[in-house]
Amino acid sequence: MTRDGDEAAAAPGDEAAAVLDREGLDALVAALRADGRTVVGPTVRDGAIVLAALDSAGQLPYGWGVELEAGHYRLRRRADGAAFAHSAGPQSWKNFLHPQREKLWSADRAPDGTVAFSTGTVERPSYAFLGVRPCDLRAIAIQDRVLTGGRFKDRGYGERRRGAFLIAAECTEPGATCFCVSMGSGPGADAGFDLALTEVIDGAGHRFLARSGSAAGAELLGRIPHRAADATTREAAGTAVAEAADRMGRAMPPVDLRRLMGESLAAERWNDVAARCLTCGNCTMVCPTCFCVTTEEVTDLTGDHTERWQRWDSCFDLDFSYVHGGPVRSSGHSRYRQWLTHKLGTWHEQFGSSGCVGCGRCVVWCPAGIDITEEAAALRAEAEHAAPAGQPDREEAER
């Protein structure tokens, strides 16, 4: 419901805050489903915590956490039965709002040679996203600007996004690859949600501090079993989020990343990372803000029916920069540099912010274990030790 720029969410100490127990969370999911919404949230499947449609809150990953490192992901059992004490998995909410493949139109040729085009009528789900991390709230706001904020809008994304109800889960246990504090996108949720939950488990029991961030969120909260927020729960929730901010597993170097990227086009470090990068595009697939697409036509054997599909593309694809005569960026060196300098640098010129939210997915799901924070730190170190020099010429920078 809420969009970037809408009314700000209530502060953590807002008097309208409420407390839900596990039965209240069950009732929350049931109420959303009764409203005709498809509830999507984290659940355990195929050795990972994935995002999938939920029939009940009982399918949440109670008692599961994750072990993360560069190129490494493992589930691990927890003793406390927490539902949201895990870091970002292989999917983001982009998979639902900006799906991997989407049909744009179809065309059919009649026996008399006339051609009829149709965009079709697709019934899009009314989503309720349960357990959206603050870093992913920021990612959704970024994709809102990218895909609906400019002159050319993605109609399908806009329709799915307008109907989405967002329930945030504040982060109380960051992973070893998380760096949202560096990017100003967590671990607390301060805007962009309809409801925000902070999980608390202590001697007083297992419960969730709930805050509304929109009129729709307040209305839903009023319909489900809850009790007024007590001082103990408020304090425990606030402390858990504050302590999470001090336990980030990674951090970006404290420099102007936009300027660093612009001044590092000729850095030697790009050769080092190019020797390791497989140009597989995993980082762009799991990134919650990468948005690039291409289109392809599919024709049946008769030649009388064709469809145009939009699908995800990646700047690591050799054909991504193809023009007559060949690709502009033919080397892995140039393609990795394009991705990182755009993500941390030139994204600002296009969309007014960084394209990175510090979720760490690109670090975890890179098969070569390449770490975006390590690369940024290495570029900074090289820049600090380099002798003063002019900017590389345009031909060298683009090669």
How many separate domains make up the residues? 2
Distance between termini? 44 Å
Regions with pLDDT < 50 over 5+ consecutive residues? Answer: 2-15, 392-399
Percentage of residues assigned to helices: 25-40%
Round the Cα radius of gyration to an integer and report it: 23 Å
Using the alpha-carbon principal axes, give the shape. Answer: globular
The average pLDDT is: 91
Class from helix and strand fractions: alpha+beta
Describe the protein in words.
There is one protein chain. The strands form 4 sheets. The chain has an 8-stranded mixed sheet, with helices on both faces. A 4-stranded antiparallel sheet has the order 7-6-14-13, with no helix packed on it. The protein has helices spanning 22-34, 94-97, 134-148, 155-162, 180-183, 215-223, 231-245, 257-262, 269-276, 282-286, 332-351, 361-364, 372-385, 394-398; strands at residues 18-20, 38-45, 48-53, 64-69, 72-77, 101-109, 115-118, 127-132, 165-169, 195-202, 205-212, 227-228, 293-299, 305-312, 322-323, 326-327. The protein starts with 17 loop residues before the first strand and ends with a helix. It folds into 2 domains: 18-245, no CATH class; 257-398, no CATH class. It is of the alpha+beta class and 399 residues long. The radius of gyration is 23 Å and the shape is globular. Helix 9 (269-276) packs across helix 11.
